[in-house]
Amino acid sequence: MTTALLELRGVDKRFGGLHVTRSVSFALAAGDRMALIGPNGAGKTTLVNQISGVLQPDAGAIHLLGEDVTRLPQAKRVRRGLARTFQITTLAPHFPVQRQVELALLEREGLTGRAWRCVDAYAGVRAEALELLSRFGLREHAATPTQDLAYGEQRLVEMALALALRPRVLLLDEPMAGVPKGDGGRLLTALESLPRDLAVLIIEHDMDLVFRFATRIVVLAEGAVLADGDPETIRRDPQVRAAYLGH
Ligand SMILES: Nc1ncnc2c1ncn2[C@@H]1O[C@H](COP(=O)(O)OP(=O)(O)OP(=O)(O)O)[C@@H](O)[C@H]1O
């Protein structure tokens, strides 16, 4: 049996009278590419917020690498191997791309305070940052302020920043949102080049991307798991079609 890197056990959440997460259970192993889909308001973001630690479930448990992290704050989950993509605009958009990635690497190494004034002295950090930029086809933009990149490229920087944390589990919240159709191919290539042994959970409305990328799909409807299976099974599931794909 493969060991789960991330496991949800009966995760439940209410906002007042609204039951937004109804006893959700699923598990991800190394190498899994899971998509979480569902109609607007199905509870996807609320669920991911509970996984990352932004919100606390009312009941149930979340296990990361076999450890119960349900009550751990976000930062501690990150240190244990869980990363999610940042919204780049909330970081320092005027910073050159390479510096952003270097800062994430320094953060990972716990060096931010001390190293801030002499980032260039950290040859290892610089080399790793450039390697990450190359992986995402951003090497030529190393000196470009992030805010001057095309929107699709900014999403690639977000992924580079998340990977800089060397996660075992990566949460991607709508990476395709706002990306022009023509740039989607580049994003898919980047997704496909993620480290093989990483477990990836992606929330995405773009069904082309979901069905190309995911090896497994969990469909959420009204806070509960409606279906969980491989893309072909999900595509044919009449309940799923009625709830979502038929729209
Ligand atoms: N902080 C909150 N307080 C009260 N209700 C909330 C809160 N956050 C979300 N909700 C409600 O919970 C339900 C689930 O919302 P959520 O954003 O998780 O859905 P979603 O599947 O991510 O939707 P979308 O695809 O539109 O992003 C919605 O009815 C939403 O209005």
Automatic annotation (TrEMBL):
PANTHER family hit by this protein: ABC TRANSPORTER ATP-BINDING PROTEIN (PTHR45772:SF2), CONSERVED COMPONENT OF ABC TRANSPORTER FOR NATURAL AMINO ACIDS-RELATED (PTHR45772)
Keyword terms, alphabetized: ATP-binding, Cell membrane, Membrane, Nucleotide-binding, Transport
Entry-linked PROSITE patterns: ABC_TRANSPORTER_1, ABC_TRANSPORTER_2
Protein name (Swiss-Prot/TrEMBL): ABC transporter ATP-binding protein
Species annotation: Caenimonas sedimenti
ABC transporter domain boundaries: 6-247
UniProt xrefs under Pfam families: ABC_tran, BCA_ABC_TP_C
Entries under InterPro entries matching the protein: AAA+_ATPase (IPR003593), ABC_AA/LPS_Transport (IPR051120), ABC_transporter-like_ATP-bd (IPR003439), ABC_transporter-like_CS (IPR017871), BCA_ABC_TP_C (IPR032823), P-loop_NTPase (IPR027417)
